Amino acid sequence: MLESDHALYSEHQNSLWFETASALEPGAVLDSDFDVDAVVIGAGFTGLRAALRLAEAGTRVVVIDAFDVGWGASGRSGGQVNPMLPFNTPDQIRKLVGPGFFESLTQVSLNSADELFELIKTYKIDCQPRQNGWLRVDHCDKARRVSRSNAEIWNRLGADMQAVEGDEVRRLSGSAIYRSGIVVPKGGSVQPLSLARGLARAARDAGAEIYSRSPVSALHRNGAKWLVETVRAKVTTDWVILATNGYSDELFSGLAKSILPLVPIQIATAPLKPEQIAEILPHGHTISDTRRIIMYARRERDDRMVFGGHGHLDKNNQAAGFDWLVHDVTRIFPQLEGVDWRYRWGGKIALTEDRLPHFHEPKPGLIAGLGYNGRGVAMSHVMGKWLAERALGAQPESLPFPTTSIKAMSFRGIQMMGESSAIRWMRLLDKLESK
Question: What averages of pLDDT result for each successive group of 10 residues across the chain (435 residues)?
Fold first, then answer.
């Protein structure tokens, strides 16, 4: 991670999740040398889930983060638990991974929300879990046709998606601009930073050691083992798990260039008056839409509203685009005109070229999992568990993810330089389709 990234999320960032998260004792700085069975680099959902599994299996595992637990996308996400792979249709996924991995990847994806909520229950994690369903609304007739077609296929695989139309979608959403949508009953939401902290607590209780503010400066083979170096310490280990996702850098050559970092951003209110929010998401669904530049939103138990979308990094490497969110939310929910959007924050996620999660094993004893493409709250826990299983001896063919080589994303530099222009262009297309 780069030091400049700290501007995106410090202890003073205006994040609702940071203000309301459950407490966690900060991790110590790594300042002594030792040998362990496994080192996990990155204290987000992926790394912490891997560490929990490894610790419970009796291995000595340490987690090292350049900042702190949940510092990256895990603690800054929208907190929606959506059990479905994004972007690709089921037929496209089958072509990309082959029939064998298609079956396993599909099942772990569709079961990912249930698995996460069961994990939260098992470890008694205080993160405001709610599994009230996810409402995915269609922004145009073409999106409706695609959504219906895909839902039929997903349902044959066990998704239990339900189509809603007209007055029903308006009643469930609280918005008059949508005419159709799909309800995914297994979906829900969490307080994401509280989830990360609760997962860290569970991992520590199982025996994992977590070190904060200890950026890894070098990583290389030392005979049959790996040597992980920070400024103050060296750790020798059998396995290294890279769990850095959208914050991947050149610690391992090529990993950062294999993904495109995107910047989801959110805004949130203080608790609102009942008349302001009564009609919005009255049954506790989370919501998102089918636009290229999507919106996603949730209503909190104390009648706050959280609204998110796609932002960008400004010239100072800080999350930007909040004014667009304020404009967009009042178009969708005019009931919220004039409310005080007190909180504004954002972070970086990882987009892969094929829009699928990637499992890499580029060297013996070194594995990486990343690229959740906007479904990280649920899928990162799946990835973390299976990274741990591989380190515990599971064979690659038994994993739900194919093991792929690390490849640079096509035209990555051009895409990053043209991100703001691309966002404006996609917003225009979305607007034209929605008329």
Answer: 40 81 91 97 98 98 97 95 89 92 94 97 98 97 94 93 97 97 97 98 98 96 95 97 95 93 95 94 97 95 96 84 94 96 94 95 97 95 98 96 93 74 84 82
Quick one: which of 132, 9, 134 has its CA closest to 67? Answer: 9
Sequence spans of domains, the chain: 3-77+193-259+353-416
The CA-based dihedral angle spanning residues 194, 195, 198, 200, taken in that order and rounded to the nearest 10 degrees = -110
- What whole-number distance in Å separates Cα of residue 245 and Cα of residue 243? 6
Q: Are strands 259-268 and 358-363 parallel, antiparallel or unpaired?
A: unpaired
| Separation between Cα atoms, residue 153 and residue 161, nearest integer Å | 10
- Give domain 3-77+193-259+353-416's CATH architecture: 3-Layer(bba) Sandwich (3.50)
How would you classify the pairing of strands 319-320 and 343-346? unpaired
Tell me which DSSP letter residue 261 carries: E
137 φ, ψ to 5°?
-95, 150
Of 133, 117, 147, 141, the C-alpha closest to 183 is: 133
Predicted model pTM? 0.94
Q: Is-contact 65 203, C-beta < 8 A?
A: no
**One-letter amino acid identity for 92?**
Q
* C-alpha dihedral sign at 98, 258, 190, 29: positive
> Which residue type is seen at 311?
G
Query: Rounded CA gap, 228 and 33, in Å?
Result: 10
Residue 263 phi/psi, 5° resolution? -125, 85
User: Quick one: residue 58, left, alpha or beta (phi over 0 = left, psi -120 to 50 = alpha)?
Assistant: left
